């Protein structure tokens, strides 16, 4: 059964020029909004409990503490995009870390994504999906979100969303890594101008080459770690390039 997660990209309600991408456009990707394209940091930090291997199952006080500390470290390192979801139970801690007293004022240009409706257990059907999308659009119309997107949709879900969409579908977050990448989904998103974003972009592999492969395929990434050295490495992806015809193609062929 496909997981339905309607994702809300609650990009900071600052002028586009104030967002972190103005200073470093090469670290960002464009997403569509109702009023034109906006740049979004291409590398996000996730806050799902599965990203914190040290926390015992269902120990949410551990997960929350890790989320708060890691988001703080991410912001200190210059990361400006954070991924959250209602069922991760870490949204309060993300907010607390972003609001941290000593934070560089540019951290107010942070891009946060959070899910608005999630149902991993059943397929609610076309009508509910379309109504959920209209509710997401309302958030944009009310000025509560700048851009809205989806997660873990299949091609049919995307087509039925596009049938009713008045606000662009900015982004689609799916599992994407060298061992699991749906090339048809990438093409479909590119056809409709939807930015694809990878969850579990490492998929058990290590290091920046794996993340860089996604970026060079045109896919933004949400990585997960509470290790500050790993965070620094996950943000340090813009001073090198993989060869398209050897390295990128070879990694794509690993699936
Ligand atoms: N929409 C959805 O359905 C969905 C589903 C799952 C996840 N997500 C989102 O995606 C985020 C990331 O998922 P994930 O944790 O599976 O992603 P991931 O980044 O592919 O994997 C995380 C693992 O990679 C390690 N790691 C990270 N950076 C590293 C580096 N530079 N070198 C070596 N190891 C590194 C981490 O270990 P260390 O802690 O040791 O660094 C951690 O064990 C989640 O937090 C969540 O926000 C979304």
From TrEMBL:
Residues 129-204 form the NADP-dependent oxidoreductase domain. The keyword Kinase does not apply. SUPFAM superfamilies: NAD(P)-linked oxidoreductase. InterPro entries: AKR, NAD(P)_OxRdtase_dom_sf, NADP_OxRdtase_dom. It holds the Pfam family Aldo_ket_red. It comes from the Eukaryota. Residues 1-17 form the signal peptide. Keywords: Signal. This is Aldo-keto reductase.
